[in-house]
Amino acid sequence: MSSNIIMKINNVSGGYDTPRGFVSAVNNVKLDILQGEILGIAGESGCGKSTLMKIIYGYIKPPLKLISGEVLFEDKIIVPSDEKFLERDIWWKKISWIPQAAQNIFNPLKRIIDHFEETLNTHLHKRVTKSELREIVEKHIIDLGLPKEVLDSYPHQLSGGMRQRVAIALATILRPKIVLADEPTSALDVMTQKVILHLFKKLQSTQNMTIVLVSHDIHMLSVVVDRIAVMYAGEIVEVGSIKDIFENPLHPYTEALIESIPKIGEKKFIKGLGGQPPNLLNPPPGCRFHPRCRYVMEKCKNQEPPTVKIDDRIVKCWKYSS
Ligand code: ADP
Ligand code: MG
C-alpha cells in the first residue's frame, strides 16, 4: 500500500434487508483516501452516501448489512471486524463519524460540557480530574475558534450552526486521524456553511486530519475539498481532483451535476439532469446511469462498465474503454 493512503475501501457492497427486498445502497465501491486530504463525496439524495459512511465507520447494524468487501485503515482491516475492537481502538480515537443531522444528537437535558466529559471519560483510558478535563476541552474549543461559553450552555440555547460546530469539536476532541462528516452544512444558511467549511480546513491544516465531507451539493464541496468522489445509485462513478472534475468532468453524470450549478450572471435556463434516480430495490442492469445518460450506447444497457484509471483520475463509464 502506498504510504500516503490512510484508508482503503476495497470493493465494498452493502445494503438493507427490507420486507420488499434488498436495497442495494452501496455497490462494489473501491476508493482510496489519502492522508491529510479533504475528500468530498457528492451525489443526489438517496445515492448511498450515508450508507457508505456507516460502512466505512463499521457501524453496521440491521437492517444494514455488509455483503462483501473490506475497509483497511493504516494497512489493517477494520471492516468487517468485531465491534468491541472498533469501540476500543478505532472509534473517536482514530476515526470519528459526524452523522447526518448531528446538531440534533445532543441530549437536551445535559450541558455541552457534560457531553465532552462523557466522551472523554468513556474513551480516554486514563483518569483525569474534572478541572483537567475542562482545561482540555476549553483549549480545544478555543483552538477551533468557538467561544468557551458554549460549554456551559444547554443545546437548545445554541443556534443550529453553533450546535454543528460543537458536534465537530466533540468529534475531534480525541484527535482522530480521520473525520467522516455527513452533510455537515445542510439546513444551514450560507454564512454559517462558510464558517463550518473553514473549521474543516482548519482541522486539516493545523492538525493534519484527513476529512471526508459528504454532501448532495457539489458546488458547496468545491469550496474546500481537494478531491471529489461522485456517487450515483450506490456506486462511485468518478474520482478526481476538484480542478479536473470541474474543468473536465469525464463521467456523463458528473457533467450533468456540474452543468446544474447556477452560474453568476447566467440567465439561460439551467440544464439539469432529467429523469429520476433509480430504485435501488431493483437497480437498472448494465450501467446504473444508462436510463438517464445522454451518451447511452447499446452495451451500457446490459454490461456493467469497468472502472478505468486515466492519469490520477478514475471513471466508471463505457465511453473510456472498449
Ligand atoms: P444518501 O445519504 O446519499 O441520501 P442513503 O445512504 O441514506 O443515501 O440511502 C441509500 C439508499 O438506501 C436509499 O435508497 C435509501 O432509501 C435506502 N435506505 C437508507 N436507509 C435505509 C433503511 N434503514 N432501510 C431501508 N432502506 C434504507
Ligand atoms: Mg445521507
Written account of the structure:
By secondary structure, the chain is an alpha/beta fold. The protein has a domain at 5-94 and 176-255: P-loop containing nucleotide triphosphate hydrolases (Rossmann fold). Helix content is 29%, strand content 26%. A hairpin with a 2-residue loop joins strand 4 (64-73) and strand 5. Residues 16, 18, 23, 25, 43, 45-51, 63, 280 line the site of adenosine-5'-diphosphate.
- CATH architecture label of one domain: 3-Layer(aba) Sandwich
Fraction in beta strands: 25-35%
Distance between the terminal alpha carbons, to the nearest Å? 29 Å
- Percent of residues in helices comes to 25-40%
Bound molecules: adenosine-5'-diphosphate, magnesium ion
Oligomer: single chain
Structural class: alpha/beta
Globally, the shape reads globular
**Rg from C-alpha positions?**
20 Å
Order of helices and strands: EEEHEEHEHHHEHEHEEHHEE
**Number of separate strands:** 12
Report on the biggest sheet. Answer: 8 strands, mixed
